[in-house]
Structure formats: structure tokens, C-alpha cells
Design brief:
This protein is of the alpha+beta class. It has two helices and six strands. It has one domain: Alpha-D-Glucose-1,6-Bisphosphate, Chain A, domain 4. Helix content is 23%, strand content 32%. A hairpin with a 5-residue loop joins strand 4 and strand 5.
């Protein structure tokens, strides 16, 4: 699920995601930085976010729920949910937090 925030944020992505309860995750395999927040005290399932800054300084949040750890041996096997009720609720929670900043 993609969420677009058109307003320019003064803070950096890491601090914005911390405000939402997310931790930075660096993928050594791909070199990408993303952000994760577990649903429970175990690693999976977890919310997973990729961010992109817009030209105007806004932010695009690409959110999904990882149900289990991905396996990459034979491609990109991924058990992600992109538009479930749980993901929509989390998108609303993130929107509320970021709009208040």
C-alpha cells in the first residue's frame, strides 16, 4: 500500500520512522535501507516500509506486512500482504502520526 505525503518534512527519514515506532533495517544483500516494526515480540510477522522522497520534499511510504521471512534461493518468494485490513489500519496510524508533525 502506498501512502503519499505531499508536505515537505524537515526531519530525515530515520527520525520520521522512529516517530512511528519503526526501526531502520539495512539489507546487506541488496544494499537497501528500509524500516520495520514487528506485530509481536518476535520478528515475524512485521510491517515493512520502503520510503521515497518526492521532488517537492514530500514522502511516499510503501507499506506491506511480511508474514514470514523471505526466501531468495529460487527467486523472490515473499509472503507479503499489501492491502489487508491490518495493513490499512497501520497506514491510517502512520498517516495520523506523520500529518501531526
Amino acid at each position: 500500500m502506498k501512502i503519499l505525503f505531499e508536505k515537505a518534512f524537515r526531519d530525515n527519514e530515520r527520525n520520521l520512522m522512529r516517530q512511528c515506532g519503526y526501526a531502520e533495517f539495512y539489507n546487506r544483500r541488496t544494499g537497501e535501507v528500509s524500516y520495520v516494526r514487528p506485530l509481536r515480540r518476535v520478528r515475524y510477522p512485521q510491517f515493512h516500509i520502503y520510503l521515497e522522497r518526492t521532488v517537492a520534499g514530500g514522502l511516499t511510504v510503501n507499506l506491506h506486512l511480511d508474514a514470514k521471512q523471505p526466501t531468495y534461493e529460487d527467486g523472490h518468494a515473499h509472503a507479503g500482504e499489501y492491502d489487508s485490513e491490518v495493513v490499512r489500519d497501520e497506514a491510517q496510524r502512520i498517516s495520523s502520526i506523520l500529518q501531526s508533525l
